[in-house]
Amino acid sequence: MIRARIASGTVFVVALAGCSHPGAPIAPPPVPMPASLDVAVTDAPDSIAGWLSDLGAYQLSARSGDTVHLEPVVDGAGPALVLHRVPARDARDALDAGVDVLLTADPDAIAYATTRADLTSVPTAWNRAYLLLVRADQSSDSEPAPARDTARAELATGAVRVEARPVSAWSDYPCPSPAGASTATDGIAAAARPRIVYSRTDDVARSVAARLVAIGSSRRELLAAFSAALVNTGDSLRAEGVDPGDVAREVARGSAVAAVVAVPLPGCGVQDVPGMDPARTRIIPLIQTRERLIARRSLTGRVLAALAQAISDSAQAGP
Amino acid sequence: MTFRTRLMIAFAVVALAPLVVIAAGVRREMDQRLTAQDDRRAAALAAVASADLSRRGTSIGERLASLADALSDDNRFRLAATQADAAQRAYVLDLAGREMRLTGLSMLQIQDASGRILSSGHFRNEYDRLEPDLPALLASTHRAALVQARTADGPMLVLARVDSVRLGGRVFTIVGGDVVDSASLARLAPGGDFSIALTWPGGDGIAAAAIPANQHTDVVARTSVPYIGAAAGSARSVQSATFTLSRSTAALDALRQSVDIWFVAAIAVTATVALAASTWLAARVSRPLRALAEQTSRVDLDRLDVEFGTGRDDEIGALSRLLGAMTHRLRASAARERDAERRAAVGDLARQVNHDVKNGLAPIRHVLRHLAQVERDEPARLPAVFAERRPTLDASVEYLDTLARNYARLSPRLDVSPCDANAIARTVAAGASLPRSAALVLELAVDLPPIRADALVLRRILENLVTNACDALDGRGGTVTIGTARADGGTQLTVSDTGSGMTRDQLNRAFDDFYTTKSGGTGLGLSIVRRLVADLGGALRVDTEPGAGTRVSVTIPPNENQPPPERPPEPR
Q1: What CATH architecture is B6-251?
Q2: Which residues of B touch A213 (CB under 8 A)?
Q3: What is the sign, positive or negative, of the torsion defined by CA atoms of B125, B131, B136, B141?
Q4: Given pLDDT bands bounded at 50, 70 and 90, which one contains residue B562?
Q5: Are A213 and B125 in contact (CB < 8 Å)?
Q6: CA-to-CA distance for A64 and A59, rounded, in angstroms?
Q7: pLDDT at A15
Q8: Which of A161, A210, A240 is opposite residue B123, by nearest beta carbon?
Q9: Cys-Cys crosslink for B501: which of B2, B108, B243, B546, Cβ 3.0 to 4.6 Å?
Q10: C-alpha distances in angstroms, B54 versus A103, A233, B47, B428?
Q11: Which residue has the higher pLDDT, A192 or A117?
């Protein structure tokens, strides 16, 4: 399974040669595999390098600033890779410049790839879950499940611009049951500020929070499906971006009524959220998101085959 | 108030008054012109700000019209809006955001006929919310209006307009606008001296903080704009918001203050210079007057040798010359008067002598006639008769002899030699006949130089004066003071008493011969004193007041023929 630790909206570009895609309808003649390939990424190269290393085919060989060098685990099993960062808004420029592989959640880049006959795209596994954190003393699990599913679907279908699906049940999100959350109120402010906080670097979280604010005034029954405390804020509810490390902490200390955080999949990941206080925070899963791998149809070879296999495995885990 | 003080005040007033008048006039004129200029500038800038606001509204309308044209040509939007094509949903949701960025608007939302928001640029996830009243209210204003738009981050104030597009028989409204915040207000507020504030009902208002809060401002203009407030969940209505253009008076105040400071400085400098100049001029004018007054104060009938010589050709010089001429005439008059007095005195004396001699000769003549008659008629009795009448002859001769001695006293002869005035004063004091309860005090100058005079004359002068002073005590207690002092190079002898003093008439006749107020007095004492002082070339001054005593000062001038004091031989 591919363990993509790429934040939503970020892109990394892998330039490969000498590979062929097994699903390509028309496979051009294989090209010789170069000894070294440049790889451009839009997020932390270390995260991408770690993901590729998890594939088992590559290992880290060197690092210089934002550039990471990878080499095949088995000598001669593929070209060496050099990862470097490009801005997310330049993803389509990277495709136009002839990159071989592009991993992105950007809908514009994905839509652009569908217009290009020489490009193909496959989704990655659902690799990110977005959670709503609500103070335990101001929320309960008594909301009706059907309304909550409707609200999740509402978020997944229109609120975010990335590929998303609602988390229909806790089985989709293998974290501790919300029944384990405490309703302790000691040390928590009685009335939190009417705002939903999110990481100011996460566009998907911002969209989710904004939609929650929007339905707070127009479709309150949907908002109530998550937490009555959110509805009680009335029209004064706001969405506000904060530093990534402060999102969960704002809820824990009562300065926000709720928070939207992203955690990687598979796994729970809640324990890795900075400032998280499970005893005082109720966790409500909202949606899952994933990226797409955009590759040149002409690519063949062992690297792309390994990537495609991994992607295929991940895709099978999806709906 | 002295003449000098008056001069100083006059100079200061003459110098300062015009300056103060000019300063006040210039400041008033400058203030009026600056204020008028500032008012014109403020009015012009207010017009520019108002025009800019109107231009922004027009620009928003033009962009919305352009967007409406674009939407009518947008098939994907048409499919989603009229055919409910779900495949175009994501496109429509992001449509307003794209168009908002393209048109440079800060707020844009597309609504269907029911008021449902199909796409929102400023609040993307606001879709499906119903807001039917906003387009209608905006349309009712017929121009740009301020709208409280909703975003995920909170309310946003925008200057908005509304347009519409018809697709497939359905009307879709487009509401768009520019954000109105402190930055946009600052662009409306021209220049650093102006600030613009926006207030609306129920809001805190916003302001372009171009002017520090501690500065005083004047409202230049107010412009009302339709305002559509109220958040979702309550009915919206059209109210009125106000743009207030204010002007800081700090620059004008600072200019006024600066001008005031300079005026005060100029007045201070002028006052200082005027004071110095007036002091100098007053001193220059008053100094010769004071000198003239001092010279004039020394003029006395017995001291008419004061010189008023001057080289000045101004009024003070003329006055000096007039006083000098007057003194000269007084000297001449005094000389003539003295001569007349002398002549009168000689005549009186001659008549007195004639009378006295006749009185002395009359018995002798009678005795001689009697003796001649006896010798002719009875010669034998002549010895007896002579013996009988001889006492008469002797008495007459004695009388004449006494008379001669008395008259001889009126014409002493001077025996001038260096003499010690202090020693003479002590001698006179020793022989003074004081009343029993009176005291005599000596106030003698130390190191008084010897004066060339007749010691006997000096003694007679002092004896007469001391005798008169003792008599003035009239047997009562009191003090007689004999003093010596230097005076203008000469020596001054003074005799003062605390006696009865003299009236003006008594003083006027005190120096007449034979005038006396004392029983048994000869009336020659002060007359002799005056003549003796005149013989010595000195001056006589009497200060007296009835009941307060009398002070007689005799000033003996330095004797120019006096040889310098002998110097001890130099040691070899």
Answers
A1: 2-Layer Sandwich (3.30)
A2: 125, 152
A3: negative
A4: very low
A5: yes
A6: 15
A7: 39
A8: A210
A9: B546
A10: 49, 38, 10, 120
A11: A117
